[in-house]
Each structure stands twice: as structure tokens, then as C-alpha cells.
Write a structure and sequence with these properties.
Elements lengths: L9 H18 L33 E9 L2 E6 L5 E5 L3 E5 L8 E3 L13 E6 L3 H4 L1 E10 L2 E11 L6 E9 L11 E6 L5 E5 L18 E5 L21 E4 L4 E6 L6 E5 L6 E6 L41 E3 L6 E6 L12 E5 L4 E8 L2 E8 L7 E6 L5 E5 L5 E7 L1
Length: about 400
């Protein structure tokens, strides 16, 4: 008689019960010992982070949808599936996912001052785009020899080839000479207010701690430029009313969490110290007083040269995770909510310019569980990442005259 057909004997029943109990204990993550000392009374303060996720169902591949772009910086999808893509050199383009090439130029936006890291930057749709056809674009606005970030909104024509009724709804002040650290990412909150990330312009890093300027900050405005009455610094003497958070260096990615509604950022550090942060109202993220990165004049970065010792808490907000040295230069940020990669639902994705990869990060609340670099074989600077309406991921490669829009598939 087969063993599986035999009635259970008492000893066998007891053995199976013990195995079931042990399995249940393991499944709950309980441990019979706490910490490294092995003391009987010691309790674990925190469960150890889990191991890496199971292997993906299949390898990733990319499909090229557009090429020949000049430093593409941002992309967004129209309701009909076509894309708007900004070129840092100053042109907004309309692309189809099946035609290739550079697509069609979209006219009507104000001139952007293209130099260094400045130019035509982010583009997003109004939450009510289906009824008002409003788009929002961040760009570098010149004023004589000075310049600063500005945000313009306008109405996209029915054929999506022209922007009219343009209106500048935000200007970064004060303006300075130079061409670095603009920030420039835009993200709408569920209440219809607009977040704007603002770099500290590199040579003026001390302004990140000055409540009287819009450098090194996140700003929050209404979609028409008005100031929300519940902004954290409204009514504070000497403070700019649109301020949301401060102590930022150069936030190059912004995404609103699909469940919590909070604003998440990726930020460039100096030599190392790239960060993922949650920008909460009134919070100070510490730059330039602290960073896990090192000053540029240090030839061989190490833990010993971290700015301000590295640790942010308790005076400043501790980043959720950091990179480097060396830096990866994270750019673009997106939470994945689709069905094409079900095992990655809820994970965070960011491109890497210096690191030439697409990074996937998994969080449990505010705690990072694991992260991995994807698409390293492309050997490409990845400027932006977005989820498409079809559930695939879309990325931009940062190249002077051969930038691409790539769909990440499996």
C-alpha cells in the first residue's frame, strides 16, 4: 500500500504537527534569538531586511520608439497614447509610439535659455486635461545676463501641435548667472496643487537654508499660480509663501505616492550622497550643512569626508536611501502601478545619468527593502522614466543628438 494511502499513526500525526508549528513560526518571521550576543532575555529591535526578490519571470528588453532627439528631458502621455517630449535644447515634440524619428515640433512656448543644465525641462498634463487641455512646462527663463527656473502653462491645440494662451505661473527668485542645478520637476498632488522642485544653482548652495529664496526648495502652488493657504510657511516673516520644504541640492525626480499622496524625490549629491527623500511640509533636508557625499575637492572620497559627518538626524530629515560615492546622478522618478510587471507593483523607479542604469527600489513604508540596477547593458544615461498607459515602462536616454524614447518590455 502506498504511504499516502495509509492512515496516520499517532507518532506520524505528532511529527506533522511539530512540522506545521515550525513552518508557521518561520512564516511569521519570529526568531528564537535576538541580536548578536545570544542572551536569553535580549529581544530583536527590528527584523532583518529580507533577501532579494525572486527572479523575474523573464529578461527585460527595450524597443526604440523615437530617436535623434536632442537631450530629451521629460515625457508625458496624452490620452490618445501619443507622447509629448521636451528637448533641453528648447523644443517640445509630439511623438507617436509607432512612427520613430523625432516626431513633430509643437509651437507656442516661450523661449528657454539653453546652456549647461538649463533649457526646456519638464512637461506634465493638468489633472483635468480632458476638459481644459492645459499643459505645464518648466524651463530656464533669461533676464539679461541672469536666469532662473520658471513654469508656464498653456492650452494644447486639438491636434497637439501648438500651445496658446500661455501664462507664466511661477518664477524662481532670485535669478543668478550660471547654468547648473535647476531642479525643474513638476508633479500634481491629488488636491490639484502643483509641486515644483528647485535646485540651489550650485554656486549658491547656502540659499537652500534661506527661507527668503526659492533656491534649494520644493514649492507648492495652485495650478493658476496662486499660493495655497495651508502651505507651511504662509505668514512666516521673511519666508517665501510657496515654500513646501527646504535644504535640497538638485532634485531631478519627483513622483506622488499612489497610496499616501506624499511627494517623493530623487536628488543629486556632490561626490556621493545621492538621495531618495519624502518631501513633507516644512521639513529641512539639510543641504548644504550635511550630506553623505564629499566635497568635490576631495580626490579620494571616503566615509571620513562626508559633509557635516553625513548623518542628518535629528536636526534634519534623514534620506530614505543614498548612493555613493561614486554618484549615480538619479533623474526621473515613477511609482509602478501597472500589470505588465505584477511583481514590481508599488516599486519606485529612477533613471541614472552617471550610473547609466534604471534603478528599481522596493519600500516597506519609509524603509527600503531592496534595490537593483536594471538595463546596465544599455550603457546609456537615463534621464526620465514614466509608466505608460499600456503598463510598460518608458525611458529617455540623455544624448546630444541621438536621444531615444525606449519602451521597457518583457
Amino acid at each position: 500500500m502506498e504511504l499516502t494511502d495509509a492512515p496516520c499513526q499517532p507518532e506520524r500525526r505528532r511529527a506533522l504537527a511539530r512540522l506545521a508549528a515550525l513552518s508557521a513560526l518561520a512564516a511569521t518571521g519570529l526568531s528564537a534569538c535576538g541580536g548578536g550576543s545570544g542572551g536569553d532575555d535580549e529581544q530583536p529591535t527590528e527584523p532583518p531586511p529580507p533577501g532579494p526578490p525572486p527572479p523575474s519571470p523573464g529578461p527585460l528588453r527595450t524597443a526604440s520608439l523615437a530617436s535623434g532627439l536632442q537631450y530629451p528631458w521629460s515625457l508625458c502621455f496624452l490620452p490618445d497614447g501619443r507622447l509629448l517630449v521636451t528637448e533641453k535644447t528648447g523644443q517640445l515634440r509630439l511623438l507617436s509610439t509607432n512612427t520613430g524619428g523625432r516626431g513633430q515640433a509643437v509651437s507656442g512656448l516661450p523661449a528657454a535659455r539653453y546652456s549647461g543644465q538649463g533649457g526646456l525641462l519638464d512637461v506634465v498634463l493638468d489633472p483635468a486635461f480632458a476638459s481644459n487641455r492645459l499643459i505645464y512646462v518648466s524651463y530656464t527663463e533669461a533676464e539679461g545676463d541672469l536666469n532662473g527656473l520658471a513654469v508656464v502653462r498653456g492650452v494644447l491645440s486639438a491636434d497637439a501641435t501648438r500651445v496658446s494662451e500661455t501664462e507664466v505661473i511661477f518664477r524662481q527668485t532670485p535669478k543668478f548667472a550660471g547654468n547648473q542645478h535647476y531642479g525643474g520637476r513638476l508633479a500634481f498632488r491629488s488636491d490639484g496643487t502643483l509641486f515644483i522642485t528647485l535646485g540651489e544653482r550650485f554656486l549658491h548652495k547656502e540659499e537652500a537654508q534661506n527661507l527668503g529664496s526659492y533656491l534649494g526648495k520644493v514649492a507648492r502652488i495652485h495650478s493658476d499660480g496662486r499660493i495655497p493657504a495651508d502651505n507651511p510657511f504662509v505668514g512666516v516673516a521673511g519666508a517665501m509663501p510657496a515654500l513646501w520644504s527646504l535644504g535640497h541640492r538638485n532634485p531631478q525626480g519627483a513622483a506622488v505616492h499612489p497610496d499616501t499622496g506624499e511627494l517623493w524625490l530623487c536628488e543629486h549629491g556632490p561626490q556621493g550622497g545621492d538621495e531618495i527623500n519624502i518631501a513633507r511640509p516644512g521639513r529641512n533636508h539639510g543641504w548644504p550643512n550635511v550630506s553623505y557625499g564629499c566635497p568635490y575637492e576631495v580626490e579620494e572620497p571616503s566615509d571620513a569626508c562626508r559633509i557635516g559627518g553625513g548623518v542628518h538626524a535629528p536636526l534634519y530629515v534623514e534620506p530614505l536611501t543614498t548612493w555613493g560615492p561614486p554618484s549615480i546622478a538619479p533623474s526621473g522618478l515613477a511609482f509602478y502601478t501597472g500589470n505588465r510587471f505584477p511583481e514590481w507593483r508599488g516599486h519606485l523607479f529612477t533613471g541614472a545619468l552617471a550610473g547609466k542604469a534604471l534603478w528599481r527600489l522596493q519600500f516597506d513604508g519609509d524603509r527600503m527593502v531592496n534595490r537593483e540596477a536594471l538595463l546596465t547593458g544599455l550603457n546609456a544615461r537615463i534621464r526620465d522614466v514614466r509608466q505608460g498607459p499600456d503598463g510598460w515602462l518608458y525611458i529617455l536616454t540623455d544624448e546630444a543628438s541621438s536621444g531615444r524614447v525606449l519602451r521597457v518590455e518583457r
